[in-house]
Amino acid sequence: MVGLDAAGKTTILYKLKLGEIVTTIPTIGFNVETVEYKNISFTVWDVGGQDKIRPLWRHYFQNTQGIIFVVDSNDRERVSEAREELQRMLNEDELRDALLLVFANKQDLPNAMNAAEITDKLGLHGLRQRTWYIQAACATSGDGLYEGLEWLSTNLKRRV
């Protein structure tokens, strides 16, 4: 699970794992947890998103079957930066077969971009050789999180 800093990755991870909101600090390095959903065990790596540590993302890509890219839907100033990081990551050879789930997070905020707008701004329609899905989400309430995992689990099962 990757995305720019303050997108909500750690909050999502622990909402899925513990079912509650945890107080977070910026992640330097990573958090890793196993999340169970419908008899599938997901090993979720929540990797820090600050710009200085983004080059480290690639060290987590080996054996990755699905990427969860988290976007702060309220951060209009940095959505183009999110797009650049996403495109850079998807060009990595180790991720050529990975599914892409985008969480358009922070949908509870009044000025949040909806999933269609995020799709457009991230250039998702241009991803021809990639199976992807965008899910509107709110990490703090949990809205959309299990719907995203549902899509991921369904599509991972199709590959077995």
Question: How would you describe what is shown here?
Answer:
The protein is α/β, with parallel strands linked by helices and 160 residues long. The protein has one domain (9-157): 3-Layer(aba) Sandwich (Rossmann fold), CATH 3.40.50. Helices cover 27% and strands 22% of the residues. The protein has 4 helices and 5 strands; from the N terminus they run H-E-E-E-H-E-H-E-H. The model has no long low-confidence stretch (mean pLDDT 94). Its main location: Golgi. Keywords: ER-Golgi transport, Golgi apparatus, GTP-binding, Lipoprotein, Magnesium, Metal-binding, Myristate, Nucleotide-binding, Protein transport, Transport. It is found in: Golgi apparatus.
Low-pLDDT residue spans: none
Query: What would you report as the Rg, rounded to the nearest angstrom?
Result: 14 Å
Major sheet characteristics: 3 strands, parallel
Report the average pLDDT across residues.
94
In percent, how helical is the residue content? 25-40%
Instruction: Please identify the structural class as seen in this structure.
Output: alpha/beta
CATH class, named Alpha Beta
**Strands, total number:** 5
End-to-end C-alpha gap = 22 Å
Shape: globular
User: How big a fraction of the residues is strand?
Assistant: 15-25%
